[in-house]
Amino acid sequence: MPDAQIDPQSDPQSDPHPSPLLESRFVQIKERLTGRFTALHALAVETGPEAARSVAADAIASVHAPFLFVVVGEVKAGKSSLVNALLGADICAVAPEPCTDVIQKIVYGPAPATRMVSSHLREISLPVEILKDIAIVDTPGTNTLVAQHQEITEAFIPQSDLALFVFPATNPHTRSAWEFFDFVHEAWRKKAVFVLQQKDRASEEELTVNTAKVVEYARGRSLAEPAVFAVSARKAQEDPEGSGMAALLGFIRAHVTGGRRAREKMESCITTGLTVLDLVDGSLTAQSETLRHDRREEATITDYLTLARKSCQSDVEWIRARTAEAYARHADALARDFEDGLSLVQMLRMTAYSVVGKKEKMQQWLDGIFATFKQKLDADVETVSAQGASRLRESVGKVMETLAGQLREEAAARSREAAVTTMTRTRLESLDQARQQVLALLDDAALDERLTPRTLQYMGEQAVAGGIITAMGAIIAAATHAAVIDVTGGLISLAGAVLALNILVIRRRASIKKFRAALEQGRERLQQEVEEQLTRQLTAIFDDIHLAFTPFFNNLARREDTLGRLDARSRELRQALLAERDELPRFE
């Protein structure tokens, strides 16, 4: 059989009629399975381990794989004409002389091409539609040097769907052809069909005798029911029945391309698809279990943050209580100083000073006792706030270190899944992102700034000053009014001084009561400010911690949705493949 060529006079792309070699119902099954397996491969890429993706790709290749016909025979046995007649296309040019001593595999390709696969194998691609469904392996003549017999019998015949042993109708006795058949393992001999080609060159008597001889030779080689056909490929188009080609095509259609062999091929592909779905479902089950585990982890993290938030709130309460205690202690001292300052002797002295031009004496006194109060309170508040900030810093830090450790352990426990599927990769990425964000919060200098002693010191100062300054403002106004009266001179001045003194004495108790009320209001305001400010900061900190877990929590929601959709697709594909298998034609 010479090098295969395209007939330049024909259009290899045109295929107006289905090949008589193919069974239409199996062509339709193949088209449906192609769509099923394409969807299956996409599903395996999304969900399955590498094995599932690989097997799914093989399934697509299998359903697209053409039937493989191996043609074996002597030179000038009519192999090229037989192949052209079988395929209904001029695949092989018929040459008067043999021109190949290598194995040729003829397959479909978008354009004519030839490549040497090995020193013994040439692959020829041709844009002929029938080659999408049937590939041909053409062997060198058996009566030539058969150094490649091992490659043919071991590599191609076991893979083949049909092995055509072609003999001249006038001489099926050649020892080389039958010796070559002996190389074929007994298990693969059932694929053989024996063709007496060029029957138009033999008489009816010769055909009868030679057909019987082929049956005899085949049975002697453990083939109980050999299939033998006498054909004339040259007359196939003008007389399909008389040429014997119709019988050969019918046999191939019934037993290979449209019979039990085709069913087995489709069934094998479907079984492969179901195997892929088993791998996919196993992966989905494992990922669903991982999702359930992660949901429990999400609940654990949320509960832990809630408990940690309550624990830190107790630190806020500690700071509030200690600050209130310091305030109460110094406010009591301030109130006593204020009461002492409003005694008759002290007021007379300050009024006398005011009369001689020292109006600011009362203001200085008030400023002095407030400055002492503020200085001592600031010192205590700074100490309390430093201790409280340290407690909060330690509590919050412990929370974040614990959570970062949990995330690290969670990622390490399933690190082997990282390269398995897209979902497991994104899961680990979200865990790592959450851990990095928690660690960033742990190292964030802003945490210290949020809980710095200066914050509490500022809050204490503002809370105290507002109430006390208002109360002292009234006292200063009264003293200023008395000083104005004193400067009227003479008795008026003295009377004014006494009057002013009497006013202050008369109002002493009311002033002290008002002052203490202002101090109490300051204490309440201080406690409220401390609690509100620190609670607000803690809320922001824990919001940031929770936000750090957003990639992980969002990933859970996406995975849950994705797993639901993938599981539905898997169940739908399984039902479709099982239905395809049930609908395959049955053969007795």
Task: Describe this entry's structure for a reader.
By secondary structure, the protein is α/β, with parallel strands linked by helices. The chain has two domains: 66-258, 3-Layer(aba) Sandwich (Rossmann fold), CATH 3.40.50; 287-575, no CATH class. The protein contains 15 helices and eight strands. An eight-stranded mixed β-sheet has the order 3-4-2-5-1-6-7-8, sandwiched between helices. Helix 2 (50-64) packs antiparallel against helix 8, helix 10 runs antiparallel to helix 11 and helix 13 packs antiparallel against helix 14. It is rod-shaped, with a radius of gyration of 50 Å. Residues 1-13 have a biased composition (Low complexity). It holds the Pfam family Dynamin_N. Residues 1-20 are annotated as: Disordered.
Explain the layout of strands and helices.
Layout: H1 24-47, H2 50-64, E1 67-73, H3 79-87, E2 103-108, E3 113-118, E4 121-126, E5 134-138, H4 149-156, E6 162-168, H5 175-183, E7 192-197, H6 204-219, E8 227-230, H7 245-257, H8 260-341, H9 344-355, H10 360-413, H11 422-442, H12 445-450, H13 453-486, H14 490-548, H15 550-583
Parallel strand pairs: 1-5, 1-6, 2-4, 6-7, 7-8
Antiparallel strand pairs: 2-5, 3-4
Helix pairs in contact: 1-2, 1-8, 1-15, 2-8, 8-10, 8-14, 8-15, 9-14, 10-11, 10-13, 11-15, 13-14
Protein name: Putative GTP-binding protein HSR1-related protein
Biased composition (Low complexity): 1-13
Domain Dynamin N-terminal: 70-118, 122-197
